[in-house]
């Protein structure tokens, strides 16, 4: 029970979070007074005078809106209630209007309640309003009327159209009239970015300015920069302003090609990928600094150069050039027409990834990779590094030569040993007698030893 009690006491201090099922029937008086509206006097038996106290609440209203000011008395013995404004002018005394201001109207008047409304509220209406109960002595309660200043629609300044790439620009977004000061957030295509905020007070309201310094890049072309004004008076529909950047930049050119190892007789397409604003068009193709030599086989279509059937005479440097009023850019492609391999690999593998003779060189069997149908990506060879390939090749050659030597040596020894045995046998067979056989055998033996020494 003790921990439960502790939890409940802490929950009473923080009434929003109470996870226990049990509550004291009457919270301690000290806590009750903390929880009640500080602008209203304590109620209940401790307060005395049978609860004849006016109870009011603070009111917050947006500029231009209507504020209802309510004053209540729980037990009233027919004593009048009165509302007065921050300047101590009486607005209503019971149901009697006291101040000539047609924005102020009576909503409800009874012994228990006096409610008035103030419409078209301005910032000047803000302040402490007093409800008085004319007992002896007079009892009062004060309610604060807070008026929120609505920020004006923002405007983005500092943008020229178009902007040149590399220019430094400062976008500023200003909104005035907010109270309290509004918040300004910047977004680059929905993604939030940080601006520098500056707040100045002007009278009761604030002017908020946020600036964004940018060095314009080509990637900013077509990008929307949004300044969003957030404020309590705007609830969930913030004001915003958006500007779309138009960035002008000189073209940048790049050539893409359809084949990594163009071979004689093949088709080759080069594309001049040029980006620039304003768009550079058309592009200009040249070969080795001059015009394209063979108009029949070399077809220019828009940004593309198509060579229908490659010939070794097509070797050379191809250049494409694009320009707009901001500048000119070019890119080069060095064409090297490869031989058609003498033995054709399976047709499906040939066009995009033909093997180079270099790979065949490392094959210890001396057959061309292309012929065996093994297709290796030349880029993969490059990635593995020339050192590895070289070492592999050397090792393969050394192993191959060593194997050959061992085989040749083995064969030679085997053949010689056979001869020796045959001679010995022959010597024994051919000899007419044992002596001759021994002589023959000895002679052969000596001869074999000589040979052995020679070999060792
Ligand atoms: C003020 O009181 C009137 C009458 O009860 C009601 O119609 C109106 O909605 C109230 N206005 C506000 C802002 O509470
Ligand atoms: C309060 O006023 C009502 C009529 O408005 C009257 O009937 C009642 O007796 C009065 N009460 C007191 C305590 O004066
Ligand atoms: C009412 O507003 C006044 C002035 O802003 C403040 O001091 C007081 O605490 C507020 N009362 C309540 C119950 O919010
Ligand atoms: C704020 O005040 C300073 C100094 O008076 C001025 O330089 C600046 O421009 C003002 N900023 C705004 C947002 O009004
Ligand atoms: C390449 O061009 C030369 C000269 O123009 C021509 O003689 C030759 O037949 C061509 N080769 C091929 C494969 O088209
Ligand atoms: C073109 O390059 C190839 C490489 O495959 C070379 O054999 C040929 O001699 C070159 N032709 C000219 C005209 O440079």
Automatic annotation (TrEMBL):
CDD domains: IgV_1_Necl-3. The keyword Protein biosynthesis does not apply. It is found in: Membrane. InterPro entries: CD80_C2-set, Ig-like_dom, Ig-like_dom_sf, Ig-like_fold, Ig/MHC_CS, Ig_sub, Ig_sub2, Ig_V-set. The chain crosses the membrane at residues 389-409. Its main location: membrane. It is a single-pass type I membrane protein. It holds the Pfam family C2-set_2. GO terms for biological process: homophilic cell adhesion via plasma membrane adhesion molecules. Residues 31-50 are annotated as: Disordered. GO terms for cellular component: membrane. Keywords: Disulfide bond, Immunoglobulin domain, Membrane, Repeat, Signal, Transmembrane, Transmembrane helix. Residues 54-133, 154-246, 251-336 form the Ig-like domain. Belongs to the nectin family. This is Cell adhesion molecule 2. It comes from Scleropages formosus.
């Amino acid at each position: 029970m003790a921990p439960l009690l502790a939890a409940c006491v802490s929950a009473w201090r923080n009434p929003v979070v109470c996870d226990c099922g049990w509550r004291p029937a009457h919270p301690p008086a000290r806590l009750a007074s903390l929880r009640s509206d500080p602008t209203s006097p304590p109620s209940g038996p401790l307060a005395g005078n049978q609860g004849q106290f006016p109870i009011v609440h603070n009111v917050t209203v947006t500029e231009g809106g209507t504020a209802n000011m309510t004053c209540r008395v729980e037990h009233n013995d027919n004593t009048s209630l009165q509302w007065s404004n921050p300047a101590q002018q009486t607005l209503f005394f019971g149901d009697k209007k006291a101040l000539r201001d047609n924005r102020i109207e009576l909503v409800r008047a009874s012994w228990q309640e006096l409610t008035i409304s103030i419409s078209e509220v301005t910032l000047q209406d803000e302040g402490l309003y007093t409800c008085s109960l004319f007992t002896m002595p007079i009892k009062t309660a004060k309610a604060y009327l807070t008026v929120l200043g609505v920020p004006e629609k923002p405007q983005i300044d500092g943008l020229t159209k178009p902007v040149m790439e590399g220019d430094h620009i400062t976008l500023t977004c200003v909104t005035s009239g907010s109270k309290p000061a509004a918040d300004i957030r910047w977004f680059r295509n929905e993604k939030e970015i940080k601006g520098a905020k500056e707040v100045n007070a002007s009278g009761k309201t604030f002017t908020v300015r946020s600036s964004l310094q940018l060095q314009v890049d080509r990637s900013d072309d077509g990008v929307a920069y949004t300044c969003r004004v957030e404020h309590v008076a705007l609830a969930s529909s913030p004001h915003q302003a958006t500007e779309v950047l138009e960035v002008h930049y000189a073209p940048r050119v790049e050539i893409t090609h359809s084949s990594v190892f163009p071979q004689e007789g093949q088709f080759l397409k080069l594309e001049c990928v040029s980006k620039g604003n304003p768009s550079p068009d058309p592009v200009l193709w040249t070969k080795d600094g001059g015009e394209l030599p063979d108009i029949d086989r070399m077809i220019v279509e828009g940004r593309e150069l198509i060579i229908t059937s490659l010939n070794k005479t097509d070797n050379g440097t191809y250049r494409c050039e694009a320009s707009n009023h901001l500048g000119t850019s070019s890119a080069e492609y060095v064409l090297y027409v490869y031989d058609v391999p003498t033995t054709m690999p399976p047709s499906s593998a040939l066009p995009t990834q033909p093997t180079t003779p270099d790979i065949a060189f490392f094959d210890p069997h001396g057959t061309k990779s292309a012929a065996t149908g093994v297709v290796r990506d030349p880029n993969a060879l490059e990635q593995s590094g020339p050192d590895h390939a070289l070492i592999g090749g050397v090792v393969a050659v050394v192993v191959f030569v060593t194997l050959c030597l061992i085989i040749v040596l083995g064969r030679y020894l085997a053949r010689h040993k056979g001869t020796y045995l045959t001679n010995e046998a022959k010597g024994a067979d051919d000899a007419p007698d044992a002596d001759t056989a021994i002589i023959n055998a000895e002679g052969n033996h000596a001869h074999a030893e000589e040979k052995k020494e020679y070999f060792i």
